[in-house]
Amino acid sequence: MAESGAQLFARLEPRRSLKHIEPRLFPDDGGPDHGEVVELHGTEGTGKTELLYHLLCRCVLPAAAGGLETDVVFVDTDYSLDILRLVSILDSRLSAAGGLEEAELRSCLSRLLVVHCSSSSQLLLTLHFLETAFSSRPSLSLLLIDSISAFYWLDRCEGGASVSKQEEKLSKCSELLGRLLRDYRITVFATSHAIRRSYRSPDAPGSSSSSSSSSCSSSEGERPYLCRSWQRLVTHRLLCCRAEAGGNMAAAAGGGNKEQRRRQVFSVHCTSSSSSSSSSSSSSSRLKAYRSSSFYVTDGGVVFI
């Protein structure tokens, strides 16, 4: 693709770093830097989309409200984006910062570009389209995908018995994403659904009971299953789950009112990988750091505890 001088300048111009987008989620050495990918993984109802809303609002809010004032692309493959929910969170954050004006809310929403996709082929075309947006808008620093695994079963069905055919479309999307990350130094956050592949009977020894199925330490459903091309892109993995009932009470015991103690608490376990500068670029040279955090969801968004 030929690019103009203005597009070349936009591509090479430094973009806003999101390394400190949410210090409570990532290890002490910081979150995702330019050209890195964060995968939020977990079963349905574990707070992944709420975390995306939280990160999105952090980016589009003005500095006076604790935001980064940077543009965001939200690729909605599950058709689950609740714009009224997003506006409610923005409204709450702006009000808490000292007043809400319609112009401020409009300014926040003007920093958001929403795209819907209904197949892997559309996702691939969307990423090609977004290259023009990234090349012309240096303020566009964050790409959110909810979710990257939305078409997993559809692709498996269309690919037949061939694993390479099943993974072909997502592999092409991942390769294009890798080029966008390299050329435009954006940051990507993407959710993925946990797929349970254990077929043991619920009554079998060692099988997960209903009380433990929501634990972050559950077995095969938490293992990466998407294509290798995608797995190689991921530098930070957030494993999301619901905290057990005892954990809810313990987390809230340190303070808060009765209403806070009744809320469902979610846990996030972060694994961050970075390449050692003194080693080769192979996977064995990657250093890992860990962090765990908890949060609950209110009308005003995510609250960390």
From TrEMBL:
Gene3D superfamilies reported for this sequence: P-loop containing nucleotide triphosphate hydrolases
Residues covered by region (Disordered): 199-222
Region forming the signal peptide: none
RecA family profile domain segment(s): 10-194
Stretches with biased composition (Low complexity): 207-219
GO terms, biological process: DNA strand invasion; double-strand break repair via homologous recombination
Any one Gene Ontology cellular component term annotated for this protein: Rad51B-Rad51C-Rad51D-XRCC2 complex
GO molecular function, a single term: four-way junction DNA binding
Transmembrane segment boundaries: none
Protein name: X-ray repair cross complementing 2
Organism this protein belongs to: Myripristis murdjan
Origin organism lineage: Eukaryota, Metazoa, Chordata, Craniata, Vertebrata
Gene: xrcc2
